[in-house]
Amino acid sequence: MPAASARPSASHGQSLRDRLPAFPWDKLEPYKKTAAAHPDGIVDLSVGTPVDPVPELVQKALMDAADSPGYPTVWGTLALRDAITGWLERRLGARDVTHHHVLPVVGSKELVAWLPTQLGLGPGDKVAYPRLAYPTYEVGARLARADYEVYDDPRELDPSGLKLLWLNSPSNPTGRVLSKEDLAGIVSWAREHGVLLVSDECYLELGWDADPVSVLHPDVNEGSYDGVVAVHSLSKRSNLAGYRAAFIAGDPTVLGPLLEIRKHGGMMTPAPTQAAAVAALGDDEHVRVQRERYAARREALRGALLGHGFRIEHSEASLYLWATRDESCWDTVSHLAGLGILVAPGDFYGEAGDRFVRVALTATDERVRAAVARL
Ligand SMILES: Cc1ncc(COP(=O)(O)O)c(C=O)c1O
């Protein structure tokens, strides 16, 4: 019965499309073609995907764990939980972190996209995130059919119906960092109104002109993890985007039920990735080396953009420069594509970004030199 079976699948397809925003990167394709036609090749600074090698000790740990025939656990090995709690205390200054305060996830994007659903949010519940933001916060709300709202300062939101408040400091796309005082004020506002605060801190180790602080720091949360969860990823700090290694940490009364749901859902980090994450979290030296690479690229690109007539706002941390020529972002994208340089238009991250472009630091030194020469 082909006709009868075709109809339901077509309507399912439509309802899925209604739940998702348009995939914006397709709009960049013509500019990518233009940039690729440059005689010396494209410099792609659009997507922030790491290009430097996976640290040797991490590759070795992955290979040593290659013989992993059994199912991995959702909560992670004891070694992984120890590595996470150790890192949280050592690098973020968090205190009294137990295994009940941590939960591995399969890269942070899946967590961001599915957290509202896994928390049981739905129509009538509200999710809020920054006016300029990583698009997956909206995707997550839409997948849960929850309502969503953007903010400039979360303390100005109407808290009624607000169930999940996303923070992202350092920010993608602007590189803005929230001060310790602001974070503390937002934590206390969220607690006062019974709103779960989830802080996406995946760029925390990439501060340049600022020293980003975690919501897990006692100066921010008054020594309590009530109502507070932080999201961390190894994708950027350890070049592990291809491994899918991330975790959340904070309020055990939130993480406990999430662990149960994720067990039922089979959301397991592969065992070799877990072993690789243990090695990565135990080593600060490769992070220092990687930071130096990004710092040098940032200085070179920053100088070249300023010299070319750009203004740069925020960008005190993260892997991006948030730059403008005070014109439509698409005019800037087009201008740079003519020089063989591809960047992301600011309106991908919200309408408020429509006069900015996001320039990623994730290209090789050779490609960054090429961009600087062209500018
Ligand atoms: C703000 C933010 N959160 C989360 C992610 C997802 O990172 P991953 O899934 O690699 O951990 C990204 C990736 O670019 C990001 O910019």
Q: What is the total number of structural domains?
A: 2
So what's the overall shape? globular
Could you say which structural class the secondary elements and strand pairing correspond to? alpha/beta
Bound molecules: pyridoxal-5'-phosphate
Based on the structure given, which CATH architecture of the largest domain is correct? 3-Layer(aba) Sandwich
What is the CATH homologous superfamily assignment of the largest domain?
Answer: Type I PLP-dependent aspartate aminotransferase-like (Major domain)
Q: Characterize the largest beta sheet: strand count, sense, and whether it forms a barrel.
A: 7 strands, mixed
Specify Rg, calculated over alpha carbons.
21 Å
What CATH calls the topology of the largest domain is Aspartate Aminotransferase, domain 2
Please estimate the helix content: 40-55%
Name of the CATH first level of the largest domain = Alpha Beta
User: What is the succession of H and E elements?
Assistant: HHEHHEHEHEEHEHEEHHHEEHEEH
List the helices and strands and how they pair.
Layout: H1 2-19, H2 29-36, E1 43-45, H3 56-64, H4 78-92, E2 102-105, H5 108-118, E3 126-130, H6 136-143, E4 147-151, E5 162-168, H7 180-192, E6 196-200, H8 218-221, E7 228-233, E8 246-250, H9 252-264, H10 271-281, H11 285-307, E9 311-313, E10 320-324, H12 329-338, E11 341-345, E12 357-360, H13 365-374
Parallel strand pairs: 1-11, 3-4, 3-5, 5-6, 6-7
Antiparallel strand pairs: 2-8, 7-8, 9-10, 10-12, 11-12
Pyridoxal-5'-phosphate binds at residues 48, 107-109, 112, 134, 168, 172, 200, 202, 233, 235, 241, 246.
